[in-house]
Amino acid sequence: CDAPILERPRVPLLKTWRGSPLAAESAREILIGHLDHPAAHPVCAKKKPWSWKIVVGANPAYDAFPMQHQIFYPVGGRRSNKSLWYDPVFCVETLDGPKVWCKRHYRVTPRQHWSDDSKGSATPGAWTLNTLDNGMVSEEKWTTVDAADDLSWCVLHYSGAARRAGQSYVGALLCSPDGQWPVSAREGEGLERIRHAFRKCDLELWELFGGSTEKSYMWSEAFTKWAEENPPPLDRIGDMSITAWRKQEREKAFAAKQRISV
Fold first, then answer.
1. Does residue 143 contact residue 9 with C-beta atoms inside 8 Å?
2. pLDDT tens-place string over residues 76-109
3. Number of Cα atoms under 13 Å in the Cβ half of residue 240
4. What's the Cα-to-Cα distance from 209 to each of 31, 161, 171, rounded to whole Å?
5. First CA to last CA across the chain, in angstroms?
6. Residue 117's Cα: distance from chain center in Å?
7. pLDDT value for 166
8. Which of these, 58, 89, 53, 12, lies nearest to 169 by C-alpha position?
9. What are the tens digits of pLDDT across the range 39-75?
10. Which whole-number Å values give the CA distances from 117 to 18, 27, 185, 261, in the listed order?
């Protein structure tokens, strides 16, 4: 099996942010978002254990998992590193009923955007994400479409492929610090700006899954109450593979059980 990364729609890139042309550092600051990390924006970041929470998305196969936390942080922990790690953490409702937290681990590297005619240079705000999970290689191209100057929201587009599975997929996300539709963008100019950002992704707001300006299904009371008793695993995986991290977590859990049984 083989599947290409789809090149359509050709989504334009955010060009300016906070009154200046988007640069490599400011593009990283948007992804890192509200994470409590030295590389986060010194004024806008809310110093959370996560970068963003997903409000709504366009692909029900990928964006429909409840309570999605996005964690972006520099490789090696160095503020100046051009590459990032991305650890999405999300809830899955299993077939037999119980909810569980799941976690993935991607490497994020700058790439050249289709609109950039310079030779061989990366374009701020355009990213390639790669992961190897359970023998399956996935590659995704992400584009920063728009972001509020105060980081109250951002819109990200992705186009990816799991080649061995023969599967291509596209989608777009509205993200906010708390997973709720940003108050400043529930009507008027703010709402129209978000609508315009999704139209750049060839999407209308009514096509998005997860909720609306008034109500979120991704962060419903039923889910958040469960999360209070079962906190999400928001520790950063860092410079190791997802396989090594899972092995480490299994060993920790086994050691804990051993201590309890003694």
1. no
2. 866 667 899 999 999 998 888 799 999 999 999 9
3. 11
4. 22, 21, 11
5. 50
6. 27
7. 76
8. 58
9. 999 999 999 999 999 999 998 778 889 999 999 999 9
10. 24, 19, 34, 63
In whole angstroms, what is the distance from residue 246 CA to residue 21 CA?
40
1 pLDDT band (50/70/90 cuts)?
A: low
Question: Residue 14, Cβ neighbours under 10 Å: how many?
Answer: 22
Which tokens sit at 5?
């990364």
Place of tokens 């997802």: 242
Amino acid 165: pLDDT: 66
